[in-house]
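Input set for joint prediction.
Command: fold jointly, output tokens.
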Amino acid sequence: MIHVTLSELMVIYLLLLLGSVGTMWVVRKIGSVQSAWRLRKTWVICQACGNQYQDKTSAALPVCPICQRANERLPIREI
Ligand SMILES: [Zn+2]
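tokens >
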């Protein structure tokens, strides 16, 4: 049998509580960063007219809906 005082039991409880809250925060943060990265990956900027459009297909060269020019998927930089 393990003997634990009430104060030690409270410290263990608080450490477990903080650990679970910290783990949930990290998991949610990683999920939000991944979803933002996936969303940014679908946006394309036309190199001819500068139009920004969303292309969810897996086409290598998505076509601009305004000027019909095929564009490469370049990474969009954050400001
Ligand atoms: Zn265009």
